Amino acid sequence: MATTGISPAALYPRYLHCLAEADEPAAVEVARELLDAGVPADRVLLDLVAPAQAEVGERWARNEWSVAQEHAATHVSERVVAAIAAYANPRGDRGRIVVACMDGEWHALPARLVAEVLRLRGWQVTFLGASVPAAHLVSYLHRHDAYAVALACALPMRLPQAHRMIEACQRSDVPVVVGGRGFGADGRWARRLGVAWAPDGPTAADLLGDERVLRAVAPADLAHLADDEYAGLVGRRGELIDSALADLAQRMPGFGDYTPAQFDSTVSDLGYILDFLAAALYVDDGSLFTEFVEWLVTILASRGVPAAAVGATLRHYAGVLHDFPRAGAYLRAGGASLPAAGRRPLPSEA
Ligand code: B12
């Protein structure tokens, strides 16, 4: 039982301050105080480290913290997770679970938290970390006689790649559980891909305890891919970015004065728009794209880029993709979700 007054919630502000100051020893000390007071290690991971990392993301999104501050804070959290794991030092005797991030996925910390929770629940865990190529993962699973694999995906735009990885594991008959923000808050895109999903480590541990439930998932439902919109969009990615850049150069006053860094982030954003659109086509769910547009506008607004620029690009892509009915509908819905200023045409469009 935890000593009165010492709880993750009570020490959270102090912990967050340690992250803000990148003060690793002080952050580890906060976690130790909780553990010494009898707070279970999984609660320290899930009620202190996890929400603090989400807050780090909010501060980065609001442009209050630079990328460097986010990296420093994340590094401190990684050290804290390692310290908690060393303190608890569980010796599991249940089967081996391999925890890995999807190919191209660099958010290793959420997966690490899940790995530590599984270990605390008695599983033997091998943590493979960020961006594991599918072929390497499958041969690893065979060689190490894994009971199951837990795959993490933090970005919905990686869902098509995630599906290839899930299929590769399922083909080798290793049960799979997935998780992470990339599958949607309620895991609906995992259901579409025909794979078991858990919202967090403890639920994943329960699911892994019942192989029957783990394997009893409905198969992937991707009949819509027959319209080839997903493949067509992916094939035209480079050409579409070039045409959107030319369109912005023509329509947006000041675009010609962008610094090389601003130009590079614009190219990245134009690519993200297409990658999220492609992922929405893949799972046949326009809400994936609309949620992304809402997020992008918030991020760009805090960095001084007007929502109208996003609106113009969505209209441009919709025009070029006139023979892609699903993509067109998602782009229009995305445009309609913009704040009023973003829906108004740029001066050159009026
Ligand atoms: C740290 C961080 C990074 C670090 C990751 C370093 C590391 N070692 O992990 C770096 C710098 C690499 C990074 C990069 C990027 N990031 Co980032 N990142 C974050 C941040 C701040 C924290 C991630 C984290 O640890 N969260 C805490 C965990 C505990 O929360 P969680 O992910 O929800 O996980 C819980 C559950 O989802 C679940 N779960 C998670 N994984 C799994 C797996 C399984 C199997 C199971 C069962 C459950 C499960 O359990 C967890 C515990 O409860 C988040 C903000 C956030 N809100 O999460 C952004 C965030 C995820 N990143 C974001 C973005 C956009 C990016 C970049 C595209 C930025 C860029 N322009 O380059 C790149 C993409 C890189 C890539 N290809 O993967 C956005 C995503 C937005 C979106 N629309 O999808 C976020 C939300 C930030 C924001 N507020 O906008 N990022």
From TrEMBL:
Pfam families: B12-binding (PF02310), B12-binding_2 (PF02607)
UniProt keywords, alphabetically: Cobalt, Metal-binding
Biological process terms in GO annotation: homocysteine metabolic process; tetrahydrofolate metabolic process
Keyword Metal-binding: yes
Matches recorded under Gene3D superfamilies: Cobalamin-binding domain, Methionine synthase domain
PROSITE patterns found in the cross-reference section: B12_BINDING
Domain B12-binding: 94-228
Signal peptide as annotated in the record: none
GO CC list: cytosol
One Gene Ontology molecular-function label: methionine synthase activity
Name listed for the protein in its UniProt record: Cobalamin-binding protein
